[in-house]
Request: fold
Amino acid sequence: MPEQNENNDQAYIENVAAEMGLKLEKIYQLETTVDDVTGETLGNLLNKLMGTKIALDVNYLPLTMKHSRPGILIQVLTKPSNLKFVLQALFSELGTLGIRINPMVRIMTSRDVLLETVCINDQEINVRIKRSWSESGLLMNWKPENEDVIMISKKLNIPTREVLQSIYQQVDPRKWTERNEDDE
Reply:
């Protein structure tokens, strides 16, 4: 394996990911700072970017700008195919004057979704389970889909922590021997 240095960072990252059985994906991080935008505008931007799945992630971080003004650092992660749409949304929604773009590599596990049936308060309910796998087929993590947990909580009028507890007690990951290739 090559040693890590500036000239071969990409090869080093690729080798580490391959050794760990993980996937690489090229993404972009876009950043801009604002000091004159309302919370409603930020909420609308978040809904626009995340609701349409244009962004992989959106973060708002408080900071102090020049002249000691409070401001917000906006960070958006996106795939190269959505770069233009994110730029358009940031410029049009925020009125920002400039956006920094940083190319990045994201290392990630393979993922799939499985439907499991659980019994909560004497009702059989289907819940989606998100699973992550190494490329060698090792189950690395699993958790119930948050939207399903919230829906069950509302439907049964019980706290989400009780829904989660029931799901974790009933779902047995030892029975999963392979991932669903169609769901990645």
Q: What stands out?
A: The mean pLDDT is 90. The first strand starts at residue 23 and ends at 34. The domain at 6-108 is CATH 3.30.70.1380 (Alpha-Beta Plaits). The beta strands are 23-34, 57-64, 70-78, 100-108, 110-120, 123-133, 139-144.
